């Protein structure tokens, strides 16, 4: 039989405002996704390439970067460069998807797209949490930092940050459901088992919670230090710091700069005289205080950027699983029982083909589609329309969340590298040999 799908038929079951919104939203996201490699990919490629080039120049100049933070920064930059390549590949696959006629072609195309995005997003998350843990240890455990973050710890961390995403990407490719309800558009919550989707949601939640917890501890310690300095006000106050062997008294006022007016020169003189022991401990403690003071604003901005980048993706996945499990579109059709005429069995119905034509009508409201519906399923028209609209909207919601998430990769080199004082200082040392920084505070 022939089913006449037009805008008039859709408006019988769906409000006109909702159809207009779906049309405008889909058109906007489609254009944004087509421009993504240019608007987001080029800045992302340039910034991360500059980071890797800067680290290479510093190493070639004969300087030894002892701090593991530079290794983790380079690892994150490589990860973001890989995401640039994946953006181009998935864009080509998405264009090819529109040309696929068979269901098998569409399914294989979606499998490749979703596995690449699974690898890319999980890689970015793990690299971020790795560098977050490193910053937390460096700021809060400054004296013991070199004892905790060893070379073996670095190797294991980088290996896990690559091997785990590769495993997740391969798993998402192999376990995708091959069912007759596979939509034309690639929707992870529809093509993957619910357990795997729940695992992906849990991974994002765990990373967000870890970010908030670790940086929250830094903020708490910062405000405690700030409160301690404010209590001193205009008068001097002697604060006791317990060392490894003896106790040391450190004189502080309300301003650290007044307590130690020429800290860098003092530190340079002590290094020339090779003075060590408990006085070194005092300076290490002071560096720790300075880290907290300078890290507070940095932490707040980083948390805000990370939340804005990843929270939309988390919400899209959650609400799609919610809609699927509770069949929201079925409840909208409780009083509609008319099946498609002539359809009695669900065996041969290719619902993805029906939904693809439905989505074409939404995107092109002046068009009219005459579809040859096989003898296949007892499917009410209303349920079919709401299922198709749900798939149409969910696909573009995921794409829009992905566009926002990729912004995090553009900001990563700015936040983790160019805003990192020692990274800037090393670059200045190479570009201007007369300039030297001997007392990094972060």
From TrEMBL:
Keywords: Cell membrane, Membrane, Transmembrane, Transmembrane helix
Cellular component terms per the entry's GO annotation: plasma membrane
Topology in membrane: Multi-pass membrane protein
CDD domains with a match to the protein in the record: 7tm_classA_rhodopsin-like (cd00637)
Major location category of this protein: membrane
InterPro entries recorded: GPCR_Rhodpsn (IPR000276), GPCR_Rhodpsn_7TM (IPR017452)
Cellular compartment(s): Cell membrane
TM annotation in the entry: 41-59, 71-94, 114-133, 153-175, 195-223, 295-319, 399-419
A GO molecular function held by the record: G protein-coupled receptor activity
Taxonomy, superkingdom: Eukaryota
Start and end residues of each G-protein coupled receptors family 1 profile domain: 47-416
Entry's family note: Belongs to the G-protein coupled receptor 1 family.
Name of the protein described by the UniProt record: G-protein coupled receptors family 1 profile domain-containing protein
Origin species: Tigriopus californicus
């Amino acid at each position: 039989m022939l089913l006449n799908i037009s805008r008039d038929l859709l408006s019988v079951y769906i409000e006109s405002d909702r159809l207009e919104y779906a049309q405008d939203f889909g058109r906007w996201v489609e254009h944004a996704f087509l421009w993504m490699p240019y608007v987001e990919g080029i800045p992302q490629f340039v910034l991360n390439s500059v980071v890797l080039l800067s680290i290479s120049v510093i190493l070639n100049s004969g300087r030894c970067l002892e701090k593991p933070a530079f290794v983790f920064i380079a690892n994150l930059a490589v990860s973001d460069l890989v995401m640039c390549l994946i953006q181009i590949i998935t864009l080509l696959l998405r264009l090819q998807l529109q040309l696929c006629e068979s269901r098998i072609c569409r399914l294989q195309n979606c499998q490749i797209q979703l596995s690449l995005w699974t690898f890319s997003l999980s890689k970015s998350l793990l690299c971020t949490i790795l560098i977050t843990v490193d910053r937390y240890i460096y700021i809060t455990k400054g004296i013991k930092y070199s004892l905790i973050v060893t070379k073996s710890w670095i190797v294991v961390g980088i290996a896990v940050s690559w091997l785990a995403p590769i495993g997740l990407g391969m798993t998402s490719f192999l376990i995708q459901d091959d069912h007759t309800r596979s939509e034309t558009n690639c929707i992870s919550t529809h093509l993957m088992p619910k357990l795997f989707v729940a695992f992906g949601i849990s991974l994002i939640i765990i990373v967000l919670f870890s970010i908030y917890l670790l940086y929250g501890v830094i903020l708490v310690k910062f405000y405690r230090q700030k409160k301690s300095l404010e209590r001193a006000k205009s008068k001097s106050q002697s604060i006791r710091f317990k060392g490894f062997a003896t106790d040391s008294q450190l004189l502080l006022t309300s301003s650290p700069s007044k307590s130690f007016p020429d800290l860098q020169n003092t530190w340079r003189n002590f290094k020339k005289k090779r003075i060590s022991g408990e006085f070194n401990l005092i300076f290490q403690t002071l560096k720790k205080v300075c880290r907290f003071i300078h890290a507070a604003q940095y932490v707040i901005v980083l948390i805000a950027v990370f939340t804005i980048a990843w929270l939309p993706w988390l919400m899209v996945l959650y609400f799609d699983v919610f809609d699927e499990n509770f069949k929201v579109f079925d409840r909208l059709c409780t009083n509609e029982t008319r099946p498609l005429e002539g359809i009695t069995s669900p065996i041969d119905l290719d619902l993805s083909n029906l939904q693809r034509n439905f989505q074409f009508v939404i995107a092109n409201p002046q068009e009219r589609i005459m579809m040859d519906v096989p003898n296949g399923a007892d499917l009410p028209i209303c349920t079919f329309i709401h299922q198709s609209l749900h798939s149409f909207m969910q696909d573009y919601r995921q794409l829009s969340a992905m566009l926002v998430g990729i912004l995090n990769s553009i900001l990563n080199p700015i936040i983790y590298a160019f805003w990192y004082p020692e990274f800037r200082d090393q670059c200045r040392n190479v570009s201007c040999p007369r300039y030297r920084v001997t007392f990094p505070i972060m």
